[in-house]
Design a protein that fits this description.
Blueprint lengths: L2 H16 L20 H27 L3 E3 L7 H4 L7 H29 L2 H22 L2 E2 L15 E2 L1 H16 L10 H4 L9 H18 L5 H13 L9 E3 L11 H7 L9 E3 L1 H9 L5 H4 L39 E4 L1 H13 L7 H15 L23
Antiparallel strand pairs: 1-5, 2-3, 4-6
Helix pairs in contact: 2-4, 2-5, 2-10, 4-5, 5-6, 5-8, 6-8, 8-9, 8-13, 13-14
Length: 402
């Protein structure tokens, strides 16, 4: 049974249990929004807030800008994004930015503050990792963001200083390191927290691995701009015996029921829009997959209405239907129960492969690369066969092929 249903029931049970008849007519208190929800219930709400944005609107932007998808020429929803112009759609992205700060990031901070005071280090690590992941996504997309002075509006600080990306990264590394240095319980988190852990079900070993993998990702992000920082950070991790994700860090609670579907499906494929035909197969990725007879093609795109599979040239959304028949082009295959991935198993292996290939980490770069490719195919439920062998070569250039 999907765990999301349990959280709704748990929250409602808590509300009914704590609302007495004497409080019934207290119209100044909203019983559906308790002021002091326990960290066990704050945590899944915060994770869902992160996933709703990262796996929803940001996934649309990322899918278009990485040229997995392109805007259908017979509809209009994402023309601005597909033309790299999100200024005109700033209401949408401002809303997502606000949601993360007022929702996810704020909730994670409440958990961090309370759990640090109480010495509940399992909750502290979980909230720190998810908050750091969310900040990392924000700085990667927006550049300068508020972090050190963020979330202090209730203290009167409504004009926090914005920090550049490298400073944000340094802060995140320091926060994760502090969390990892605490007395993290082995095995499972405390029972109440484990039962509400929608990512790993309370498995603290995987939370430590998630923390390490996120650190590795942040360092690899800086491998060209700040190579000395990246190398020193990665070598320190490996010297300390860091272990990395061997399963995905994801939110896998969705089902094909209204308001419980995958956020990308809800935003793009549900009846909320006038059409579910907006996201078409970009020829950029489609052609690569097709030329390699890659079985993932049919797991990423639907067969065209007129039959067969076909990609559309990126950015040709102004073509007339006479020039390009939209019914002849494949559209994105987005499932309502698909997980939202924070860091996939494939990404974890690719990060490790790159660290090894650069000589900053240990392990066999080829074996890690192959594990990453295998994991990518496994995630989509198809066999790799002999596709994409390790490129080999020298460590200065081959890593770019990972």
């Amino acid at each position: 049974m999907k765990r999301a249903i349990k959280y709704i029931g748990a929250i409602m049970a808590m509300l009914f249990a704590t609302t007495s008849c004497d409080d019934f007519l207290d119209v100044n208190t909203d019983p559906n929004n308790p002021i002091n929800a326990p960290v066990e219930l704050l945590f899944p709400a915060a994770v869902i807030s992160t996933a709703g944005t990262v796996g929803g609107q940001y996934a649309i932007l990322g899918g278009l800008w990485s040229q997995y998808y392109t805007q259908n020429n017979a509809s209009n929803q994402y023309k601005d994004i597909d033309s790299y112009n999100i200024i005109s759609t700033n209401t949408t992205f401002a809303g997502r930015y606000t949601e993360l700060y007022s929702g996810a990031l704020n909730d994670y901070q409440v958990i961090r503050d309370r759990s640090r005071t109480a010495g509940q280090w399992d909750a502290y690590l979980m909230a720190t990792v998810m908050q750091s992941y969310t900040y990392q996504v924000l700085t990667d997309l927006y550049g300068d963001i508020s972090i050190d002075e963020a979330l202090q509006g209730n203290q009167g600080n409504v004009n926090p200083v914005f920090r550049p990306g490298p400073e944000v990264y340094d802060t995140l590394i320091a926060r994760i390191n502090f969390a990892l240095a605490q007395d993290i319980p082995e095995g499972s988190a405390s029972s109440g927290l484990a039962g509400n852990d929608v990512v790993f079900g309370g498995d603290m070993e995987q939370w430590v691995r998630f923390a390490n993998t996120l650190k590795l990702k942040i360092f690899i992000r800086q491998s060209e701009a700040r190579p000395d920082v990246a190398q020193a950070g990665i070598e320190e991790m490996y010297a300390a015996g860091a272990e990395f994700l061997d399963e995905p860090a994801n939110l896998d609670i969705f089902e094909d029921v209204t308001s419980r579907r995958n956020p990308l499906y809800e935003m793009d494929q549900s009846t909320a829009l006038n059409t579910n035909q907006n996201l078409k197969a970009s020829l950029t990725l489609f052609e690569f997959l097709d030329q390699n007879t890659d079985p993932r093609l049919q797991q990423l795109y639907r067969e065209a209405t007129n039959g067969g599979y076909k990609g559309q040239q990126q950015g040709t959304f102004n073509a007339t239907t006479a020039q390009l028949d939209p019914l002849s082009v494949s559209r994105a295959l987005i499932e309502p129960d698909a997980p939202v991935y924070f860091i996939s198993k494939a990404e974890s292996y690719f990060l490790q492969a790159e660290a090894a290939l650069r000589g900053w980490g240990t392990g066999d770069a080829a074996a890690l690369y192959n594990a990453g490719v295998d994991a990518s195919f496994e995630q989509l439920g198809v066999e790799r066969g002999g596709l994409y062998p390790f490129p080999g070569g020298d460590s200065k250039n081959s890593w770019r092929l990972l």
